[in-house]
C-alpha cells in the first residue's frame, strides 16, 4: 500500500489582525491622553507661554512614546500586567536560596 502524501491546511493570518493599534507611531491611548492634556493646558491658561509649553510638551512626550513603541509596541500593557502581578513576585529567586 502506498502512503498518500497529506498536505497540511494553511491558514493565512492577515497583518491587520496582528498589528498593534498605533497612532503617530506610538500607543494610541497614550497619544490621545497626551494630546488632551496639551490642549487643556493651552486653552485653559490662554497665554503664549502656555501655548509654547503645551506644544513643546506634546512634541517631547510623543517622541518618547514613539521610542517606547519602537522598542515594544505592547510595552504599556506589559507594564500594567507587571504591576498587577507585583505582589506575587518573590523577593528571592528561589525558596531554597540562603539569606
Automatic annotation (TrEMBL):
Spans through the membrane: 32-65
Main subcellular localisation: membrane
Highest taxon, organism lineage: Bacteria
Keywords assigned by UniProt, alphabetized: Membrane, Transmembrane, Transmembrane helix
Pfam family, one: VirB3
UniProt key word Transmembrane: yes
Naturally occurring in which organism (per UniProt): Rhizobium esperanzae
Places the protein is found: Membrane
NCBIfam families xref list: PRK13823.1
Protein name in UniProt: Type IV secretion system protein VirB3
Lineage: Bacteria, Pseudomonadati, Pseudomonadota, Alphaproteobacteria, Hyphomicrobiales
Cellular component GO terms, alphabetical: membrane
Amino acid at each position: 500500500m502506498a502512503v498518500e502524501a497529506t498536505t497540511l491546511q494553511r491558514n493565512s493570518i492577515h497583518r491587520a489582525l496582528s498589528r498593534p493599534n498605533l497612532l503617530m507611531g506610538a500607543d494610541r491611548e497614550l497619544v490621545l491622553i497626551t494630546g488632551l492634556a496639551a490642549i487643556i493646558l493651552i486653552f485653559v491658561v490662554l497665554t503664549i507661554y502656555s501655548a509654547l509649553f503645551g506644544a513643546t510638551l506634546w512634541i517631547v512626550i510623543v517622541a518618547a512614546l514613539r521610542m517606547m513603541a519602537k522598542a515594544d509596541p505592547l510595552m504599556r500593557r506589559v507594564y500594567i500586567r507587571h504591576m498587577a502581578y507585583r505582589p506575587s513576585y518573590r523577593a528571592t529567586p528561589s525558596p531554597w536560596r540562603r539569606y
